[in-house]
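ARCHIVE CARD
CATEGORY: sequence design from structure
SOURCE FIELD: tokenized fold
FIELD CONTENT:
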């Protein structure tokens, strides 16, 4: 007679506990915080290349490497995105630079530094495309002009007026209307931005914008020099 087999231990082995995913590294935590800046940089690229009307938020999201849903977490519309871009990528760096320029020893040196900075800004093809974009599309999208006037032109113009008033008060500059003079300071930079995006590729004569702006600085400072008695 066969011996009964000993009872087998029917207890199943416990499945290994699932491993938790490692906590995100600081790099990825920083990436989430950096997303608004990345989206704004992508917006500058897309708007400058395609214009406001033709640009789509899908294009911006793709350029930034995020989903359209992620983009909407930060910016509720294309107009809101454009306004944030004007503020963060244009007004903020310009105002920071103007604060530094205000520390120059003389108003003449400050004005020269300002024009050198504006020249460097024009060397960025994305930033230099924005004035033409606004001129071309403000009839259909007047909000663009309002955004640019409020966030870029007016703050910069106020600081430039302060610079000119300081030069007049110190005797470095002759008495002029500071508000009207700001238009003369800015005009060649606006011309350069428009010319490079519209006419440069059609003109058989090379447009040397650096030479133009150097000559502009010379004319402007001579025009501001105090009257000789």
């Amino acid at each position: 007679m066969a011996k009964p087999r000993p009872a087998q231990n029917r207890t199943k082995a416990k499945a290994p506990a699932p491993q938790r995913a490692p906590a995100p590294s600081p790099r990825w935590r920083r990436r989430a915080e950096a997303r608004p800046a990345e989206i704004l940089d992508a917006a500058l690229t897309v708007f400058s290349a395609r214009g406001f009307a033709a640009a789509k938020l899908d294009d911006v999201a793709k350029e930034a490497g995020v989903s359209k849903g992620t983009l909407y977490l930060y910016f509720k519309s294309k107009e809101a995105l454009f306004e944030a871009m004007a503020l963060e990528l244009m007004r903020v760096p310009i105002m920071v630079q103007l604060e530094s320029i205000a520390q120059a020893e003389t108003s003449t040196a400050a004005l020269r530094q300002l024009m050198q900075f504006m020249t460097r800004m024009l060397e960025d093809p994305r930033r230099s495309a924005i004035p033409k974009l606004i001129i071309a599309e403000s009839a259909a999208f007047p909000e663009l002009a309002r955004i640019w006037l409020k966030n870029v032109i007016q703050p910069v113009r106020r600081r430039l007026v302060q610079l000119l008033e300081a030069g007049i008060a110190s005797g470095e500059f002759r008495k002029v209307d500071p508000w009207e003079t700001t238009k003369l300071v800015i005009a060649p930079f606006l011309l350069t931005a428009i010319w490079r995006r519209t006419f440069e590729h059609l003109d058989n004569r090379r447009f040397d914008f650096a030479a133009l702006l150097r000559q502009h600085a010379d004319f402007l400072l001579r025009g501001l020099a105090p009257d000789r008695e």
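CARD ANNOTATION: The two ends are 137 Å apart (CA to CA). Confidence is low (pLDDT under 50) at residues 23-30.
SHELF: design records, drawer C
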